[in-house]
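Here is one chain, start to finish.
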Amino acid sequence: MVQRALVVSLVLCVLATAGFAEAPSLPRPRKDKAANAKARLELASEVYKGLLARHTRGDARGVGGGLDLFETVQRWSLRWMEAQREVSDRKEDHVAAAEGHLDRMRKLEAFARETLRAGTLAPHEVWATEYFRLEAEKALQRLKK
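Its structure:
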């Protein structure tokens, strides 16, 4: 009886994952450091934009809402900034990357405050986005020195 249940479970798992074989292929790892950074830059910006777009229209499937989503969005913004900084060795470009991250965190905080006013967020979730913005401001100040 136990063996039969295991076999049925295995067959169901195989059938459930069968549709994933046709998923779009991921970019191949690149030997060239600059090409790798550019690919990561593009991917990070697209993931960030996709997460934010899903949340702003109230669709947080696959990602917890509120604080979980805000932390995920913040991490992808950081990845975007880090990849952008790796594309160039110029200080001006590093500052621009940090400014972009700060701008994204300001918008995230503003969105959280609007959502709080609408009554769908708790204050601590807004405070987290304020923390992210303050962190981004600190990173930018260090770069400008």
